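At this stage, I put together one protein's amino acid sequence and its backbone structure tokens, which the following lines show:
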Amino acid sequence: SIITDITLSPSNEIGLKKKQYHKLQKLSFPRLDWLYLSALKSVLFPFYRATVLLSGSKYPTLSTTYHVLKELEKFLTTLKSDRPLVNSLKGLLLVQFNYYFEQEISWEQNRAALVSITV
């Protein structure tokens, strides 16, 4: 986006005066922060999509829960050698994912999800 371009690497090409340019540079995030935010966005986006999908009120969602959770788990366990920061974030999320969806889920909840996918 233009805001990202301006704050990530402001240049004189957009017609800023030198004083405006320096003021904008002071307000902008450092490059490393942008990398963190970008990695965080790419890791959290599938969770956003899953939330939207499972928040439907005009269609049954229990039967899709199992598949959504399996896809999230697959996403979290698929690592790319050229994205170490994303891999680290995925690893941290995977620990929490396993805790809440394998250890903390009750037997009844697990059974209901499994029954719903077979019906």
